[in-house]
Design a protein that fits this description.
By secondary structure, the chain is mainly α. It has 3 domains: 31 residues, no CATH class; 112 residues, no CATH class; 107 residues, no CATH class. 50% of the residues lie in helices and 5% in strands. It has 11 helices and 4 strands; from the N terminus they run E-H-E-H-H-H-H-H-H-H-E-E-H-H-H. The strands form 2 sheets. The protein has a two-stranded parallel ribbon. Strands 3-4 form a two-stranded antiparallel sheet. Helix 2 packs antiparallel against helix 5.
Amino acid sequence: MQVSALITDRNRQVAKWVREELCSKGTNHFFDIWHIGKSVGKALDAAAKDRDCEDLKLWRPAVINHLYWTAASTPNGDADVMEAKWKSMVNHVQDIHVHDTPTFPCCAHLPLEGETRNKAWLEPGSTVAVKLESIASRTALVKDVRQLSPQHQTFSLEAFHSLMLHFAPKHTGFSFLGMYSRLLLAALHFNHNSDRQDAQTSDGEARYAVRYPRFRKGGWVVRPVKEKPSYTYASSFMESLRVEYSRSPQSLRESSTVLFLNAPAPLSSSYQRIDKDEAVGLYKAQHSRFNIQ
């Protein structure tokens, strides 16, 4: 299979492997925006604790929003344009809206006056402006911004991983076939409910809920309420099993046998075994010096 585009987080080992193994075959590697935005937010929070840098708290949401806009407004994923748009933020917060980059010569917003202004501009050359520029211009961050994914993100995959915990919680150990079956059920449930519509009130109005995510640190977000998940796939699955069993019980038993036979051996089977008496003897020898006569 030829992978045309791959979106991941900023794991450096994964990025190196993709660069060496896939990019040479025509794969474009992009980074998920949320992970980079989280990193930028942490850097701004740390810098805001420094003297004369408290205003970074006010600009933090706008900086993160600008990061998302940088990618979303560049659907073709042009790395030079995204870099120029990102760096223009440093000028924008100082009330400078004309830039010296031909790929993005001026800000795209309308004049900000009156009610559209809710934050004070940063003074050019001030401590807080220099600090923000040092954060936004870090070589590693700019390199990552050039690889922002303009269209697709990893949130749906992470939602599936979260759903898997309901079918296969980590605090419980399962056999290989037990885990295999639970992962299949999780995939069936996720695919069946992935296109749920927004819930509505009795009057036909869309329903919304106010949430307080932990990463917002007390901030709130409004999210549409989805319809309740459906489990009709389970009934269809059970009916299919009934039909197959009534048609050929032996065939179903043979399929189950094949699954059992193809189950891999436990990980502990690859370890070198030691005789139990020898292990007990070593244990007693190691603990004999602690015995008080």
